[in-house]
Amino acid sequence: MRKNKAVLIGAGLANMAAAVYLIQEGHWNGNQITFYSLDDHGSNDGAQTDTVTDEYWNKNHPMENRKGYVARGGRMLNYRTYVDLMDLLSRIPSVTEQNMSAAEDTYDFDAKHRTFDKARLLEGGKGIINGSHLGLNMQDRLPLTKLIAMPDSEEEKLDNVTIAQYFSDDPHFFGTNFWFMWETTFAFRTKSSAQELRRYMHQMIYEFTQIEHLVGVNRTRYNQYESIMLPLVNYLKDQGCNIVLNRLVTDWQFKATTMQDEITVTGLTMKNTLTDETEQVAIDDDTAVIFTNGSITDSATMGDFDTPAPENMDYGAAASLWKKASQQFYNLGNPDKFFADRDASEWVSFTLTTKDHLLLNEITRITTQVPGNALNSFISTSPITALSHKDINMSIVVHHQPHFTTQKPNETVIWGYFLYPRRRGEFVDKPYIEMTGKEMTQELIGQLSKVDPGPGNIRDKEAQIMDSVINNIPVYMPYASALFNNRAKTDRPKVIPQHSTNLAFTGEFVEQPYQMIFTEQSAVRSGEIAAYHFAGIPMANLVKTPRYDKDLKTLAKAAKKMFD
Amino acid sequence: MNKKSVYLGVTVGLFAAGILYLAKRTGFFEDDRHLYDEFESH
Lengths: 564, 42
Ligand SMILES: Cc1cc2nc3c(=O)[nH]c(=O)nc-3n(C[C@H](O)[C@H](O)[C@H](O)COP(=O)(O)OP(=O)(O)OC[C@H]3O[C@@H](n4cnc5c(N)ncnc54)[C@H](O)[C@@H]3O)c2cc1C
Fold this sequence. Notes:
Low-confidence stretches of chain B: none
Oligomer: heterodimer
Shape of chain B: rod-shaped
Mean pLDDT of chain B: 81
CATH class of the largest domain in chain A: Alpha Beta
Largest interface: A-B, 28 and 15 residues
Bound molecules: flavin-adenine dinucleotide
Distance between the termini of chain B: 60 Å
CATH architecture of the largest domain in chain A: 3-Layer(bba) Sandwich
Strand order of the largest sheet of chain A: 6-5-14-15-16-13-17-12
Helix content of chain B: 40-55%
Strand content of chain B: under 5%
Radius of gyration of chain B: 19 Å
Distance between the termini of chain A: 51 Å
Number of helices of chain A: 17
Largest sheet of chain B: none
Number of domains of chain B: 1
Shape of chain A: globular
């Protein structure tokens, strides 16, 4: 239904995209758009630590050491499939490069710093593993091929099927190089949804053939906040949008109707998180409400060099609000599927800042590649999974330096993560989730020492490296992979649910055709759909989605690759 | 027409039918544009 004003709940990438399309394609004025949000970055963060310690999720966990940088995630983009994201970025100016759009900025940087991962997998005693050998056997190839061959219209066949269940007759699959690379490139866990894995096999089929080098991966010049979010924030402010931060939207008022299925928002209740005061916002007939109904960094907490990240048991802030809506209407999905099983979704990441390049140079020597090129994953040397397989202990992303505009030339910032935070370290004998930043650094040096080709060993320089650390911020994200949790198609609301007159859902917990989630691409597209709906723009005008899964050449290459 | 070309014709025909069947089963010809119909503004 066409509207002339919009209230957006959440100021992450999805809703900012919606606002840009409302302005540029719907020809709205910025002042027709108001955001209410806890912050203006969501999952796409990146900042000096001391600038974010007072934010909503952090303020109850005061930190001793606020030095260095933090970004809860490292990012990989993929131009070929991220067509909506690149379209969005082409519409706004970069904040760091003069006379360039944010898209040109990224193209320019990426062209000069092409990804070619030379050490995607490393294993103690063996060093760099040849990842191009996927290690699949006939029993693995068959179910994988079935996933690739399953059309969109039959996706429901994978309702409520986990990846572990889908491959239950084929435990060998989880010990292959293919799985090691796939799980850590995209953050799939064995409990994740097979339905989503099918979507990845379709949308990322192109990457299948080059996963060991990640050559299809594109990166922004700086962290996601400065290269993507800040250009959006600045543009939207310039256009006159009202971005109201430090607001936690806690409840809805809906129009009462006889059939009880018409979804019309008439008001919102929110808390000012600075003053704790409750505020009420009325929603009139001419206003659309665009709601990002889940955030994978909700309830995330930070530690520091000497403190582990505390575990915050809060249900996600966005999901809590989603739950309230879903309790009232039957077609708005099931947030518990995603936010009530931390065992399936949690991970721990860390952002390590050092005052010199010693560690960086050591990693470059061991992995044989320059910073900015890689995602390095360390395979355990003994079985660590329930199926008695080896698996990845930890992964690191060594950014191109500098990764922050304020970073000093002598400083280095490295990001890493543990996909299974309850597993125990090999060099620090405790679960990763209980480790301080210092202990995570020791664990990293330990893992590097196992794959060090010499001469000498990185451990010889451990004291010097530890001395160079300015800070290491562990971040616990209980819902980092929540979007991949096992689900049925009806567990997520559609971007525009049936019977909705003014409410749209955006982000990573919505149902939209074809798109795989955990991508900036799908977040943007959901916002674009919502904007087109409320501005009355035909959906035929949406950015065209390339279908590599229907390209014979790509399919043939993928088939060949399966036999490597 | 000799026997050989009949066999050839049948083989090619069967092969083409097989490919078509496979393409249909795997949604190769599925057009996903209509999937956005439900999001149109009315
Ligand atoms: C560790 C990590 C690694 C990632 N790696 C990649 C990658 O390699 N490639 C890739 O493409 N993508 C990656 N992503 C995903 C990408 O960041 C997300 O797709 C994208 O940020 C989602 O945007 P969003 O707008 O849907 O949600 P978010 O960015 O989460 O924004 C949600 C917003 O809503 C606000 N909010 C929540 N609840 C409320 C409430 N009740 N009231 C008011 N405001 C509220 C939040 O504060 C936030 O501002 C990664 C994410 C993480 C966390």
